[in-house]
User: Which sequence fits this backbone?
């Protein structure tokens, strides 16, 4: 994607229904884009106080333990014992429990392998250096060894620069893995000078996880600014360091939020696949704070609903205590709460990735009826009653969210989803839709979808010398009966100067996406939202690929 005086053209190329979006070429000061697969929401929903958690049990040797019943477990909510009202043991097809109770019956040898879908999710907003190189090579070895019968794998990134949808085509998967590059922020090495504050150290200070670190940073500031350790100067520097930490963390936390947002979208996409589902999160670790508890709780609940196990791999080897707590907390909670595993403190990424690319052999789904929601975060504790020598892992808590008010204003995403599902035409902003099919040698077609926006008809906010706007694109392919097949959502942030804005107003904004499709009749549905005035456009066109 590049901005020029002639026009602004956004390339969101999906080559394998969808595969690899072309990364934006414009500098981050002008245009940035983030994207993920789009899956429309269910049209029906129900209120329930059922709280569920996936639970895994391991023996002293680390082997999965099975054969337990609901009576073997105890569960507390904020320390109060709860009655388990939902219970099931989940086993991978053909898996045997190594310990912990009654062994599973052997599966017949004639049983066909169950379909399995593995989403390799590279957190390229936080992966960098040797961790990125080694995890990319481990993924290459895993794929090159061949996929088991019935397995489909996909490669996804939270930057959106690499997306290979579920396929058994190892050449496409290898090409996707080879294209993964770091999108980490150079500011991770330090965003201030005296004291030096990285996003990690800033978050640790703001969350008050390490008072000694805060004191060390105050001493750095005193050495720079104070002639002596006078009370006035020390108090002034304490306030300065804390304020700086708040600013540094606030400027960086959006990357963690993006990682969580894309993770939730990917879970929804994976949940549409019919078979065993595993999401393998590969990351150097990303920081989360108290305010992100609702997002983490929603991710676990979505994964449990769609029966998606989240396995996580930390690429950073051995981390010191506080750093480990901050960087791996979200990964650990997502894995424990969905029956998956977190592998850390290892440099053998080949073995780790190979082991995590399969669903857990055995896990349990345990639920209870919670009291009326109070809008607060509740701590959960699951244990084995009267059993020793076992390690029990489960989600650490949940947000007892208050029910939405009937007259509550819908969120921007809800408005986009409703516009997509309605199939109505909306003309809230000047946008038009073009499609261009091209036959391929294998009998399939490449369908290019172009959204043209007249930049003269949308308002930009002003911030100094910059003109600000945000555009959200949902592009989806449906069959001739209107059934959703595949789609993508992309968010484009514009921070452009006056010259670029003039060029855009002269020639427009053109968003391009491409899908590989077999012969047939399709509908292309497009929804576009602009942020400044919160206006929507919805367009639809039919295309016959014969």
Assistant:
């Amino acid at each position: 994607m590049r901005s020029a005086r002639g026009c602004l053209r956004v390339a969101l190329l999906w080559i394998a229904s969808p595969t690899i979006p072309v990364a934006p070429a414009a500098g981050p000061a002008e245009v940035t884009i983030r994207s993920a697969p789009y899956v429309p929401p269910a049209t029906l929903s129900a209120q329930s106080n059922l709280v569920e958690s996936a639970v895994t049990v391991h023996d002293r040797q680390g082997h999965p333990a099975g054969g337990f019943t609901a009576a073997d477990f105890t569960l507390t909510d904020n320390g109060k014992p709860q009655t388990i009202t939902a219970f099931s043991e989940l086993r991978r097809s053909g898996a045997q429990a190594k310990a912990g109770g009654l062994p599973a019956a052997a599966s017949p040898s004639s049983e066909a392998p169950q379909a399995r879908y593995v989403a390799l999710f590279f957190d390229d907003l936080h992966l960098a250096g040797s961790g990125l190189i080694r995890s990319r090579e481990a993924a290459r070895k895993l794929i090159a060894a061949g996929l088991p019968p019935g397995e489909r794998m996909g490669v996804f990134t939270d930057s959106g620069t690499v997306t290979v949808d579920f396929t058994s085509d190892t050449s496409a998967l290898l090409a996707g893995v080879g294209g993964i590059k770091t999108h980490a922020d150079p500011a991770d090495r330090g965003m201030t000078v005296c004291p030096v504050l990285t996003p990690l150290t800033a978050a640790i200070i703001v969350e008050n996880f390490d008072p000694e670190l805060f004191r060390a940073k105050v001493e750095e500031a005193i050495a720079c600014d104070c002639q002596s350790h006078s009370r006035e100067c020390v108090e002034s520097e304490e306030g300065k360091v804390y304020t700086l930490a708040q600013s540094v963390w606030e400027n960086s936390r959006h990357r963690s939020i993006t990682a969580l947002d894309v993770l939730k979208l990917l879970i929804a996409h994976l949940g549409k696949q019919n078979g065993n589902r595993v999401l393998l999160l590969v990351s150097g670790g990303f920081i989360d704070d108290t305010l992100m508890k609702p997002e983490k709780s929603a991710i676990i609940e979505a994964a449990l609903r769609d029966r998606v196990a989240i396995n996580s791999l930390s690429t950073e080897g051995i981390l010191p205590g506080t750093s480990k707590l901050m960087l791996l907390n979200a990964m650990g909670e997502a894995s424990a709460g969905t029956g998956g595993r977190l592998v850390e403190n290892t440099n053998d990424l080949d073995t780790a990735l190979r082991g995590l690319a399969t669903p857990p052999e055995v896990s349990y789904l345990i639920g209870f009826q919670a009291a009326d929601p109070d809008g607060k975060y509740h701590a959960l504790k699951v244990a084995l009653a009267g059993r020793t020598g076992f390690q029990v892992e489960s989600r650490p808590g949940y947000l007892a969210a208050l029910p939405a008010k009937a007259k509550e204003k819908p969120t921007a995403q809800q408005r986009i989803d409703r516009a997509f599902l309605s199939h109505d035409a909306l003309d809230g902003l000047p946008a038009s839709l073009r499609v261009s099919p091209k036959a391929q040698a294998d009998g399939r077609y490449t369908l290019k979808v172009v959204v043209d926006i007249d930049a003269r008809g949308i308002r930009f906010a002003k911030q100094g010398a910059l003109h600000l706007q945000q555009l959200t694109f949902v592009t989806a392919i449906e069959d001739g009966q209107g059934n959703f097949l595949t789609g993508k959502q992309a968010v484009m942030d514009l921070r452009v100067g006056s010259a670029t804005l003039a060029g855009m107003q002269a020639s427009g904004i053109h968003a391009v996406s491409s899908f590989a499709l077999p012969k047939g009749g399709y509908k292309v549905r497009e929804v576009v939202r602009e942020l400044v005035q919160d206006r929507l456009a919805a367009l639809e066109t039919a295309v016959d690929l014969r």
In short: Residues 1-28, 43-47, 94-113 have pLDDT under 50 and may be disordered. The chain has ten helices and 26 strands. The first helix runs from residue 129 to 144.
